Amino acid sequence: MESKISIQELSEISMYNDNGILTANNPFRIFGTIPNIGASFLFGSKEWLNKSISKLTIRLTWCNDIPTDFNSYYSSYNYYLDQQTPCFKNTSFLVVFSALIDGKWKSLNTKSFRLFDENKEDDSILQISTFNLNFDNDLFFASSTENSDEFKFTDKTRDGFIKMELVAPENGFGFLLYAKVVIAIALYNAALISSWHRKKKLKPAPNIPYSPLTEKIEIKISCLNS
Q: Lower CB count within 10 Å: N or C terminus of the chain?
């Protein structure tokens, strides 16, 4: 019998970040309130258990508070870090994916993905990010008595969840830098004000670090049916 590929959009998704359980009923901070490097977002579903998944598509819709240009938004941070290449720009934020299979996290990609997609015309941030993961060897989550009722992630969970982890930039979204940047800008402006030469402009106060706020998540799986 010829095998066919069926595409299914998941309707029930269990989600967690490092702060705990999330609900899709309201906008949620995908990496928590203080997303530093290593922050993670977990999601799973009963609907993909016992299926041979050849492709996974994750579509995230960001809320309207997302900056259109991270280089501009984090300009004060880039000044503080004083490096030739800005550490905070649209392409700086990278994630990797792994799957919990038989109690172990296994990498699902050989390269990192950009967290935010850009408009090709003006390089501004798009409000929707799409991640396509293709599997040469089909991804398979086995059901068990542990996840047979309510689908939760606990210390005993061994299958059925995928993790998206923030791996760049080194300073995450800048929360650990914020106080240092505030002080550096204040000292710079104070020195400028007290000097006799006012050719340079005062630097604006740094923006509060951004924490990605997700309005909607959509997940589709492509499965091989015999």
A: N
DSSP letters, 170-185, are TTTTSTTTHHHHHHHH
- In this prediction, residue 218 carries a pLDDT of 97
CA angle 15, 130, 43 (to 5 degrees): 15
The count of other CB atoms within 10 Å of the CB of residue 66 is 19
Domains of the chain with bracketed CATH: 4-176+210-225 (2.60.120)
pLDDT at residue 1 is higher than 80? no
pTM: 0.91
In the three-class reduction of DSSP (H, G, I as helix; E, B as strand; rest coil), residue 80 is classed as: helix
Q: Give all strands (DSSP E) within the chain, no chain letters.
A: 4-9, 14-17, 20-22, 28-29, 40-44, 52-62, 94-101, 104-107, 113-114, 128-140, 161-168, 213-225
Alpha carbons 108 and 161: distance in angstroms, whole number = 12
Percent of the chain with pLDDT over 90: 69
What whole-number distance in Å separates Cα of residue 114 and Cα of residue 156?
Answer: 31
Measured CA distances, 83 to 68, 174, 182 (Å): 22, 15, 18
Neighbours of 111 (CB within 10 A): 6
Taking Cα atoms as reference points, which of 122, 115, 143 lies closest to residue 41? 115
- Alpha-carbon distance of 143 to 158, in angstroms, equals 10
